[in-house]
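tool_call: predict_structure(chain=1)
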Amino acid sequence: MALTPTEASGRQPTRSCVACRKTAPKQELVRFVLGPDQTIVMDFHGKLPGRGAWLCPDKQCFELARKRKGFGRAFKTGVVFEAKVAFDRLQEQADQALGQSVGLARKAGRLIVGGDEVERALDRASVQLVLLATDVSERTRRRFETLARVHDVKVAYARTKTAWGETLAKAPCGVLAVTESAFAEKCYRYSRWMASAEDSMLTAKKDVVDE
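tool_result:
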């Protein structure tokens, strides 16, 4: 398949949010298409056929698209956008996709679990993404944000320690790392989309109990 000029240049293709009109790399935005029954369908993986319209993955833009009838303009037809239903669905799908991506990374030997193990991997420069549970302690949060900054590695927050333990069939765990770039990119994106439920900010919930 021939590359487009944008792909050949190494630049990521961009799209505009139908609500706030912000332009961003399309992988950072959520794609929607118009279904055969003239309803708006979320295209979570960006693979459905047809003309697409895009939204920032935050609650404000979902609601703004409803108020401003952004999809009506994009698709040039009268459509109803259920902002809350769509946003809740985004959170659900992002959580499922994150769990699947972490599981695949683990099967591929590209997942590291546990604070000490992740710190050693950072020192070896083999980490692409640090993934922290939302209820890690303030001390743990600061420790790994500092380490990640030193090693120029992204940090994302998602799920609780208990939830990660259940996903991995382990005791509750709050510190994970992904060592392969493709898995890391997906995990980072899905974590951001989940964090968008709290005003689109990646925030760590503080806990008085340390790791």
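agent: Residues 1-9, 199-211 have pLDDT under 50 and may be disordered. Proceeding to next step.
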